[in-house]
Write a structure and sequence with these properties.
globular, 351 residues, 14 helices, 9-stranded mixed sheet, 9 strands, alpha/beta
């Protein structure tokens, strides 16, 4: 059984699409909606939630002013299912992919999380429903080294977003135990929980269609790497981030000195690639076919701005990319045609 946590803020149209998607599939798990919307947006969200109450297992909490990290930390102790996954209101999971992740974790207790193949798509005018203009691979990866230090170093060298994996609930709760007090959004909502997920245990990448993420202008993005590292809140966020990772590694049986050196080396490498990659993108921009294909090559996260250089992402994508294309998925001979049709109807037909 699975709990899906849905953070949302001021995007009732995207939330309606997502709740309708789950209702149409008669989803049997729990949906936890954490709503940080204000004023009229909050009223619209509440009316939408009321519309779907009784059709799906739905818990709604209005949490105005709460950060995404605080929202996810709030829901942690309330989860009663063995597995949990993060579902931003503008993303759609493939139900068969979620089930395969659950089945894998049921049969493989040495793994703490699992994910599958993902894609990034673009809809005309950035609306929740409309003609799909483009679709391309989105990198989700495995992390299977037995050594937590090696997993952390590999992860920060080839950064991806582990948060979108199906996690064991006990691991998920620990991932958000520390970050709710950090004011810096990048550390609190992405870097710290991502790294804690990696340290916690191995992650499996399954050869199954799993997640579709939408590129649009109303995404909530992080600041660029330079402004982030020179911000007033960065130092405090980094100290909590570093100390928490070191403590977690020590609790895993790693010598403290080795843990300190590993965190320093891994994060230093991450910063170096992050700053260099973004500088080149900002001031030495290469010609690209279009903005969407460039977005597919950049680091994707809850917010997509803390990007690394393209070379590392390209290298690791060579191993796990399926070269997902819209034409391929719409071909009736595609092995996952039926599964994609549910997603396709949700993003192309207005409710």
């Amino acid at each position: 059984m699975l709990t899906v946590i849905i953070p949302t803020m001021n995007r009732p149209d995207f939330l309606r699409r997502l709740l309708n998607y789950y209702a149409q599939a008669s989803f049997g798990g729990w949906l936890f909606v954490g709503d940080a919307s204000m004023d009229l947006y909050a009223q619209k969200v509440q009316r939408i939630v009321e519309e779907y109450q009784g059709k799906i297992h739905l818990r709604y909490e209005h949490l105005p002013g709460q950060s995404i990290a605080q929202t996810l930390a709030y829901f942690g102790p309330l989860i009663q299912t063995p597995y949990v996954v993060l579902n931003p209101d503008d993303d759609l999971f493939v139900f068969s992919g979620l089930q395969r992740c659950e089945d894998f974790l049921n049969g493989n207790p040495s793994y703490t999380a699992a994910n599958g193949q993902a894609a990034l798509f673009l809809i005309e005018n950035g609306k929740p429903c409309g003609a799909v203009q483009d679709l391309g691979d989105y990198p989700l990866m495995p992390s299977e080294n037995e050594d937590p230090v090696a997993r952390l170093e590999e992860f920060l060298e080839y950064y991806w977003v582990a948060l979108f994996s199906v996690h064991r609930t006990s691991v998920w709760q620990q991932m958000w135990h520390y970050g709710s007090g950090i004011k810096d959004v990048a550390f609190a909502a992405e870097l710290l929980p991502n790294c804690l997920s990696i340290i916690a245990g191995k992650i499996k990448h399954l050869n199954t269609l799993y997640l579709f993420r939408q590129e649009h202008e109303r995404r909530y993005t992080l600041t660029d790497a330079y402004d982030w590292q020179t911000s007033y809140e960065w130092q405090n966020g980094y100290q909590i981030f570093s100390n928490t990772l070191i403590e977690t590694l020590v609790n895993k049986g790693i010598d403290k000195k080795r843990a300190q050196q590993a965190v320093k080396k891994a994060f230093w490498g991450y910063l170096s690639s992050c700053l260099t990659g973004q500088f080149k993108n900002q001031y030495c921009r290469l010609k690209t076919k279009d903005n969407f294909k460039e977005a597919c090559r950049n680091l994707p996260g809850i917010g997509d701005s803390l990007a690394k250089g393209l070379s590392n992402i390209q290298k690791i994508r060579l191993s796990f990319s399926r070269n997902i294309t819209l034409n391929g998925l719409l071909n009736k001979s595609h092995p996952e045609y039926a599964q994609f049709q549910m997603v396709y109807k949700a993003i192309t037909y207005s409710i």
